[in-house]
Amino acid sequence: MTKIWKETGFVTDDPWVVETDETKAGSNEKAILGLDLFIEKASSGDSGLGVLINPADDVTRLQPFLEQVSLIAVAFPAFNDGRAFSHASLLRARLGYGKEIRAVGDVLIDQVPLMLRCGIDSFAVTNATALKRLSEGRLPGIDNHYQPTARPSADAKSYSWRRVS
Questions:
Q1: Residues contacting residue 104 through CB under 8 Å, at least 6 positions apart
Q2: 22 by DSSP, 3-state: which?
Q3: CATH number of 3-136, picked from 3.40.605.10, 3.30.420.40, 3.40.50.620, 3.20.20.70
């Protein structure tokens, strides 16, 4: 069972559905489309759609359509495939995308703090351990970081090596 989690807790009534050949969004749901289908629909003027970015996709293809995207889902097909971290960072830092980025696929509890730092702000969680720990409010993490990220530290002045714009 998949549950959607944000830092405020689990979300009920999430309308987003990743569309596949077998699964389509219903009347009260919103579609998350593959990149090519999304670009086709966005080119014809559709808006309010979500897009799924798979690891091998070129996320910069979304740049002309970012105003039309309501949600970007970045896929983590396996725990050892971290290309979606780069996609999320690129979307936030270079492309300036400010709406929701969701992690889908193999979302593990140990990776959630790193995903948050890369700019991902919602998570489609199916892993039993992750669901349990998130429901208990037990999010792992490290207090101090050397690298700046898409999501800056609350106290950026405490890092003498970090450039603050």
A1: 18, 52, 73, 74, 75, 76, 124
A2: coil
A3: 3.20.20.70
Beta bridge partners of 18: 32
Q: Of 35, 14, 5, whose CA–CA distance to 127 is shortest?
A: 5
Q: How far is CA 38 from CA 29, 33, 77, 140, 152, in A?
A: 16, 5, 20, 35, 30
Which residues, in sequence order, are bridge partners of residue 123?
Answer: 5, 103
Chain position carrying tokens 């709406």: 99
Q: What is the DSSP letter of 56?
A: T
Rounded Cα distance between 86 and 114, Å, is 11
Specify whether the CB–CB gap between 18 and 52 falls below 8 A: yes
- pLDDT (tens, 9 = 90+) of the chain, 165 residues, equals 899 999 999 999 999 999 888 888 888 899 999 999 999 999 988 888 999 999 999 999 999 999 999 999 999 999 889 999 999 999 999 999 999 999 999 999 999 988 998 999 999 999 999 999 999 988 877 665 555 555 655 655 555 455 444
Could you state, in order of their start, the residue ranges of all structural domains in the chain?
3-136
